[in-house]
User: What shape does this take?
Amino acid sequence: MRIYPFFIDHAGCPHRCSYCRQEASVGHPATLTAADVARQLPEMLEHGRGGEVAFYGGTFTLLPTADQRAYLEAVSPYLGSGEVGGIRISTRPDALAVEQIELLKGCGVSTVEVGCQSFSREVLTRSFRGHGPEAALQSVFRLQQHGIRVGIQLMPGLPGGSRKEALASLSQALSLKPDFLRIYPVVVLRDTLLARQYAAGQFSPLALDEAVDLCAEMVWHCQRFSVPVIRVGLQATDGLNQGDAVLAGPYHPAFGQLVRSRLWLRALQNLASTGHRSVLVHRADLADALGNKRHNIVYLQQKYPYFTVRAVPESARQTLTSDLDTGTLHELSAYPIEEFIF
Ligand code: SF4
Assistant: This one.
């Protein structure tokens, strides 16, 4: 879906989660006004297309009501004309009371991204989120009752978290039947409480490889339940790429590709280790199959020197055809499901 994004910085949020340094994440220090939206939106629109105007950053539903209305009303002429199909906002689970949702619904909001981050009480407490898991459950339920599409954001690797916790949180999230997920493994940003905890040796982020492994497993489970993951890993922005904004943790500008490639590595290794020597894939999948900087194929050929991966036009997407068999990426990269209690 086409998204027309606006960033409202840290506006609206009276909290300070231990990992949050909002201005570094979005790289837009200026304060957006409703007049800015009204002025910029016509230039952004691609006529004839739907899509959603999205207000990201901050905590939209904790802005003063008049400001929320002003932002949303700046978009409403384009909703009326059909040039924009809906409005998307992001917010905290404990800022979605019935009256807040009714305001959103009445002003044309079609999608809400809920920053749940984890469903573990311990993780939420240790990250100073200021709410418990029940807030996430209730807010998602309320949004769905009002006919609003729901996206859930999860953050594996928070203090007190683990692979088991991340999978349990994912399981809880999927049980709510969201329309999509975002998965952001935690990184340590400068000038945050987490940075101080990291410097004091009180917190260790996931290593890059560990985070890629975990996120690949999470994405695989989302595919199993047909829930799209619209982003894995923080978006590379000027704010994040400059200097020492990221002190530690699994930040990589191509994190999403690393995760996709990890699934391909599992599938290819599955075939290589059972005697398959040549695998054909769709040409649009070849880069992911070979891996970032050809990591997958170099790794596999060290263990299986005659193993090759090639693209052929007739291959289906997300499918591996070998000299012996054909299977989908999802089938061949399978993870255990026993510990994934729904
Ligand atoms: S709720 Fe969001 S914007 Fe507010 S402090 Fe936490 S992460 Fe930052």
In short: Residues 259-332 form a domain with the GMP Synthetase; Chain A, domain 3 fold (CATH 3.30.300). The chain has a mean pLDDT of 93.
